[in-house]
Amino acid sequence: MKLTWKIWLLIIVLICSGIILSPNFEKGVVIKSVEKNSTAFDQGLKTGLIIKSINGENINNFEDYTRVTNTIFPTKNKTTVKFGTSSGEIILFTNEAPRITVADIPRTKLKTGLDLSGGARALVKAENKSLSSSELEDLITITNNRLNEFGIADVSVKSVSDLSGNNFMQVEVAGATSADLNDLISKQGKFEAKIGNKTVFTGGEEDITYVARTGAESGVYSCGEYQGEQVCSFRFAITLSQKAAEAQASVTKNLSTDPSEPEYLSQKLDLYLDDSLVDSLSISRDLKGRVTTQISIQGSGKGATKQEAYDDALSNMKKLQTVLITGSLPYKLEIVKIDTISPVLGKEFTKNIIILGLVVFIFISIMLFIKYRRIKVTLAVILTLFSEAVITLAIAALIKWNLDAPGIAGIIAGMGTGVDDQIVILDEASFDDKSSLKEKIKNAFFVILSAFSLVVVAMIPLFWAGAGMLKGFALTTIIGVSVGILITRPAFADIVKRIIKE
Amino acid sequence: MENSPSHIGTKNWYDKYYKLILLIPIILLVLSLAYLGYFYNKTGDIMLKDSSLTGGTTITLMGNVDSAALESSLQSQFSDIAVRKLTDLRTGKPISIIIDTSAKPEVIKPEIEKFLGYKLTEENSNIEFTGPSLSKSFYNQLLLALAISFILMSITIFIIFRTFIPSLAVIFAVFGDIVMPLALIDFLGVRVSAAGIAAFLMLIGYSVDTDILLTTRALRTKGGTVNKRIYRAFKTGIFMTSTALVAVLPAFFIVSGLPDSFRQIFFILMLGLFADILNTWLTNASIIKWYCEAKKID
Fold it and tell me: What is the reported pTM?
């Protein structure tokens, strides 16, 4: 039994696809994100590393990880914790749980889109301003940094543009709610520190070289009642860059002392977040015209109870710290579209789509058998269809494409055209007229190639229309029909030739 | 298998009436276009759009909720609210309800929570919001995409066949495949989503293969009479369309609990496939036969 090279090609590609899609049963948890400037980060815990054990205890999944870390932390005194990872042992000497987020190791390389896995997605643009692509790149970098600072895992931030040339930033967060996303993106526009109407510094590495976030230099330090409300104050230290400190000195140099409070200068250092005043810091008389790099930033939070005020102060502090670290944006952001999909519904959808796929396969098999009355022919068509779906999925996994519901609809619809093409080959080949089998297959391929080029041209505009929201549908459809035309159809034609010769 | 005796009878009948047959799809197409015109006059657009295209909020609630009571309780504050119910076809049990409104999520969510008496969480609901500025351009661009697809498709068809009338016949058939389902969808009052418009694009690629098969067999293949070749193409093509229908039908009648975007894609493909049976085998086939007779092609 000799197989042609086309059939071999199909077999090889199919095996490769099988390997790509094969489930992963490795034990452990994978690190999704590590907070910068934390002990964990310094000791070499990196995103993508797999934790297999902690202090000799095996970690098989996420539950194990939380159970083990909860028994160790928090401790009063610093202790040694040994992490067995995929790249050797990493030892932390700490009294708090490592500032990392972890997740179960994904079982397949197939990624599902938000509508199937659950999470939130936002499409963001600058308010009253169109962004150039370089501005958009900066925005994406800053947003990525902010999301990392917050320790949010499984984020994808990318630029998308639409047919009229508008640029948007798309943020997808698995498992987050829309409120979280809203908070993260739109409420953190810009930070400015002003004296009078002069901006002295903004956030970001250029202006601020260090922001204290732990220890004695940072935290909520006092709470009390003020006008019937609980108020808590926070403070943290920052280090200004030489340039920013000099800018501040050049402004304070011209200030006089405040007549009512002679130990302070006449104007205050005002901190603005999104154009609203966070705090006004009195500047000591001694600092007039002096280049100081060490500054303490203060602010407050309030609430009905002391706990609420404390939490509010803590979250305000974190927000301010994040902005100071990552830098501020020169414009405000506007969320133009935001979706939250329940992970529970997503799971249900995935299950039902798999059932649908099976039902479609069974129905097509029955129809083919009724028409051709031959097991071999039916099997050939079904196996070809199946390979097509598997190869398409493997390519999606390979290019790390997130499969969403329209994308899967594209694959199933692609199977519809796939089966059509095979019917053309079968019918064309089984005509009893004078032309040779080779001629007949050639005729069939003329129809198939024409149909293929039409599907492709019909899908191309979807790559750009509407900020590429339907790119998934277009892409899986094109991948599907391309796999068909390049790999499975030629092999199928050879299989049909064999069956007919028999 | 190919030389069925019934074919001889078909031939005479078909020779006599094929031009008359052409009238059926043309009347349907004119009716569809007229309805679209009427619809445009009435609503100001060629289709009803859901919140993904008009801007607004779509909330999907899981489980058994009294959708009629919810709708009437929200109606007073949100006049444009639309509540749909998804039911499992086999068991008749409600799966989820879908609420569409132009209001923002912050506004509508508390009202729904008040009615339900529990909080909407990510465990029990989906919330999708599209801002009005985005949705307007989004919709226009999808229509533009549809137009571009149609033009690219037409050019490709001319390149493939290189003859005017047969190419035009294919393009005319595809036009019918889009217009007829659209009219029907408007008639049924379906609110089209972004994914739905993508399905119309898909229709172009999906419905055209039977037309190509027909044209190729009628004009390029040798042997047999024109009728015989058209009939052979018909036998293959109708089976192709039936299997394609079998691929899309279970999404409505057998498997429930699929994402809404997914169901709409399949619904539009289904309507398109039915329209395609008419447009390929009545419109396109008649034009091709006419063309062959005029050009004396055997």
Answer: 0.72
